[in-house]
Amino acid sequence: MADAVNSQGFVHLRVRSAYSLLEGAIKAGKIGKMAADAGMPAVGVADRANLFGALEFSQTTKDAGVQPIVACALPVLDIGGQVAQ
Predict the structure, then answer these.
(1) The pTM of the whole model exceeds 0.85
(2) How far apart are CA 79 and CA 71, in angstroms?
């Protein structure tokens, strides 16, 4: 099983770009090259409450030969009105 995982490569699915204020510092356009340099077949960006960097991330990641995965981490309120973690 471990050999199958290693042959497929590791994929980060919850990277935060600089568009996630106070949570990420990497510019969306540089993530794809960093993933390619690390030998990753794909990388996912899940910025908090926005998709502002999705187009830039998708284009530059595809150009680097890495499959882009776009997501958005949305805050959800529980029954008591508090933000669920």
Answers:
(1) no
(2) 25
For residues 67 and 58, is the Cβ–Cβ distance under 8 A?
no
Place of tokens 């600089």: 18
User: Among 59, 54, 71, 79, which Cα is nearest to 13's?
Assistant: 71
Q: Which 8-state DSSP code applies to residue 81?
A: S
Q: What is the DSSP string of 27-80?
A: -GGGHHHHHHHTT-SEEEEEEES--TTHHHHHHHHHHTT-EEEEEEE---B-TT
Q: Which CA distances in Å does 20 have to 3, 38, 41, 72? A: 34, 23, 23, 10
> Residue 5 above 70 pLDDT?
no
Average pLDDT rounded to a whole number, residues 14-42: 95
